[in-house]
Write a structure and sequence with these properties.
Length: 163
């Protein structure tokens, strides 16, 4: 199969690679670009472990072809915080025990990051609905919801203090 030249912006950096047009974005990210935060879970879009932010929307990278991502701006868990400076969401997941095994955590946090950009003051019901496409087999979701709500509160407190 003929490979295409793929140009993306991933976590704020312009990147180029060769990929088969029908190759999935998750494989391009992990295998060609070495970005291993998004996980390969079910490969059917049910679990959300592969969730990334693409052009301002949460998408499941196991359902996007490389050709569809041409020119896209993509943010993964690696672009949300750093090991030295965690994002508020990452801190709240740690503080409120929103993770156990950690497999779903990158997709959960990436989805929650977009959710809070779309709705900075969500209710518990809105968080549950907004996170419904991401599955966790360990936590029972209560602490994930607490983590997202705590992050929303923290982000809004910081925003109000800045104003």
């Amino acid at each position: 199969m003929t490979k295409m030249h793929l140009t993306l912006t991933v976590n704020g950096e312009a990147v180029e690679t060769l990929a088969e047009p029908r190759e999935l974005l998750i494989h391009v990210l992990r295998e060609r670009l070495g970005i291993t935060g998004p996980h390969i879970g079910c490969e059917t879009s049910h679990c959300g472990a592969c969730t990334v932010d693409m052009d301002g929307k949460s998408v499941k990278a196991c359902t996007i072809f490389a050709a569809q991502a041409q020119g896209a701006e993509i943010t993964t868990i690696e672009g949300i915080g750093t090991p030295d400076s965690l994002h508020v969401l990452q801190e709240m997941f740690r503080e409120h025990h929103g993770l156990q095994c950690g497999f779903c955590t990158p997709g959960m946090i990436t989805r929650a990051w977009r959710l809070l950009k779309e709705n900075p003051t969500p209710s518990e019901e809105e968080v549950r609905f907004g996170m419904a496409g991401n599955l966790c087999r360990c936590t029972g979701y209560q602490n994930i919801v607490k983590s997202v709500l705590a992050a929303a509160n923290e982000l809004n407190t910081v925003k109000e203090a800045a104003e």
